[in-house]
């Protein structure tokens, strides 16, 4: 079997660098000193107001695990033998490549997005060769080049904004009939689709946005255009970097909900927020703090966007297992109202409506609604995105005349989630 034939028979995301990164992560997680450091940080966070709340305490161990995994993957990305894009973020564990990888998350990670990242030298030249599956192309692909790396992004160091050095979406690509495309990266423009770099270590990030779990992420390969010696890959040095960076990384993300959208709490929704860069679109954030007999009803307008999705998160802003619970809904998973709007119900118990979002037993948490790839030239005001937000009695949800599901249909819906979430990338 040739190298090209081998590539075509394995999952798009199962690159040699991905396999190396995941195997290294699993090895590092057995380190005794790391476990002691995590225990110390857990003690600090358990004493905070969020750590002492019922929902925060119930999810704290998982949060520490996810943030630790995220940092380790970021440290690995910085020292791969050759700069490579690796799949770094997925709050839901996955079983593949002969192992189970635990959740790898930071904050507000979207179960409909496939997040990849690479650390690149801004003085060097690179190309990205890519290919879409023409029949199952993602709703949007966005690619951005940022200063710093995922270990120490600029906003973590000095609270600067996240404006990218350069950004593009699939609308900017020159895509061949077979779905292939090419991007160049470097300090001088050298192709029709180019990301202009700057000196220093930079982060190349991409997100394939899946509006339907039958869509597939693009195949992409980052290739150096300069002759440079491979970087030594020293696991002991990676572990030392983790010891050094984990406290700051973990405490930054643990505090992030306190400042995110002004620090939402209670049953509250934010105004619409316009996103810039390659992810141009809109976001609306919310918080929920529900009694067992309450529900939140949210009606949104999809505004013709190629991607829109609604997800719930725990108080630390990490998503529950999206394979097992209906904690997110995208375009393909959402039943519309007769006028084309969507009405969602956030509740602890299943109210029998199609667009139920499951709190997974947590009395409080956060939510995020996204709209991306809106029609070109469309004049969309953030004010039209959310038509209704209200807290109601759970007993009154039935009177709202929303799309319904039977218990058998709900079981089928959940079974389809498990299959769809796995197959979308694997």
* Large-scale geometry: globular
Q: Specify the biggest β-sheet.
A: 6 strands, antiparallel
Category from helices, strands and their pairing: alpha+beta
How many DSSP-defined strands?
Answer: 21
Helical fraction equals 25-40%
The tally of domains stands at 2
Number of helices: 8
Give a description of the structure.
The structure is a single chain. The chain has 426 residues and is of the alpha+beta class. The protein folds into two domains: 3-259, no CATH class; 264-423, Jelly Rolls. The chain has eight helices and 21 strands. Strands 12, 13, 14, 16, 17 and 20 form a six-stranded antiparallel β-sheet that branches. It is globular. The model has no long low-confidence stretch (mean pLDDT 93).
């Amino acid at each position: 079997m040739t190298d090209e034939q081998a590539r075509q028979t394995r999952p798009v995301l199962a690159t040699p660098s991905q396999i190396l990164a995941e195997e290294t992560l699993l090895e590092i997680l057995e380190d005794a000193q790391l476990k002691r450091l995590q225990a110390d940080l857990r003690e600090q966070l358990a004493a905070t107001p969020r750590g002492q709340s019922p929902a925060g305490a119930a999810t704290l161990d998982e949060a520490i695990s996810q943030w630790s995994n995220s940092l380790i993957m970021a440290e690995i990305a910085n020292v791969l033998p050759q700069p490579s894009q690796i799949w770094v973020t997925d709050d839901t564990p996955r079983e593949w490549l002969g192992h189970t990888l635990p959740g790898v998350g930071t904050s507000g990670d979207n179960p409909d997005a496939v997040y990849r990242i690479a650390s690149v030298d801004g003085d060097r030249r690179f190309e990205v060769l890519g290919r879409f599956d023409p029949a199952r192309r993602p709703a949007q692909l966005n690619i951005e080049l940022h200063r710093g790396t995922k270990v120490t992004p600029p906003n973590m160091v000095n609270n600067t904004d996240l404006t990218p050095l350069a950004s593009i979406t699939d609308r900017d690509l020159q895509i061949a009939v077979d779905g292939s495309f090419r991007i160049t990266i470097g300090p001088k423009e050298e192709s029709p689709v180019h990301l202009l770099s700057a000196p220093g270590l930079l982060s190349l990030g991409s997100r394939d946005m899946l509006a339907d779990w039958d869509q597939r992420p693009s195949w992409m390969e980052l290739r150096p255009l300069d002759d440079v010696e491979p970087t030594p890959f020293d696991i002991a040095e990676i572990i030392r970097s983790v010891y050094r960076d984990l406290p700051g990384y973990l405490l930054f993300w643990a505090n992030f909900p306190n400042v995110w959208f002004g620090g939402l709490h209670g049953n509250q929704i934010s105004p619409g927020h316009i996103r810039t860069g390659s992810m141009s679109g809109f976001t609306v954030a919310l918080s929920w703090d529900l009694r067992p007999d309450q529900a939140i009803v949210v009606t949104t307008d999809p505004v013709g966007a190629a991607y829109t999705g609604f997800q719930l998160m725990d108080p630390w802003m990490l998503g529950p297992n999206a394979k097992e619970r209906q904690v997110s809904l995208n375009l393909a998973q959402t039943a519309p109202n007769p006028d084309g709007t969507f009405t969602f119900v956030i509740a602890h118990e299943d109210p029998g409506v199609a667009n139920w979002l499951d709190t997974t037993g947590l009395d409080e948490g956060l939510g995020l609604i996204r709209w991306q790839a809106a029609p070109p030239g469309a004049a969309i005001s953030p004010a039209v995105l959310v038509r209704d937000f209200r807290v109601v009695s759970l007993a009154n949800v039935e009177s709202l005349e929303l799309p319904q599901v039977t218990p058998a249909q709900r079981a089928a819906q959940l079974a389809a989630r498990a299959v769809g979430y796995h197959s979308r990338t694997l």
